[in-house]
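Quick note —
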Amino acid sequence: MQEVETEQWTNRIYLSAKITFDLSDEALKALESGVALHLLLETEVLQKRRWLWDKRIATDELRYRLEHQALSNLYLVSHDDYNIRRTFRTLARALDSIGKLNDYLLADISNLNPENNYYGRLRARLDIESLPAPMRPMAYISSQWRLTSPWYHWPLDLLDKLPADPQREPLAGAENHP
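Predicted structure written out below.
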């Protein structure tokens, strides 16, 4: 993770982040050979507790499909949940697009107590379960396929009542991240 920033507007927390992806040689070879890679961005909001495990308040997962089209030598990034597809001339630009979150709705915090301590966390990973079945056994045992970043944590300071921002109110998952 290069940057993570959150903002609170009314009862919502929005996340902006810059994530850098480093694919292994095996993953790159598979991509260039026509295997689609599914990259996941996972977010969580947790309440810090003294005596028990931290309580999950909100979780979300953004799933991207990265493909290389050999005939056109272009890279296709799909976000199937929101029916978004974008084409890029280079792998670097495709990965950069996946790694940019801008004003993504992280959580609705209307029922949270500002007296408690909360934190957010974010990680990126390659979903090996979505690889073609013949490739999965090797992916399970090879470190070249276990591409998961550590969780990046940051504190969330909840502010009491904030004014509504009319530009942010209609935002939801699809509109937040192309």
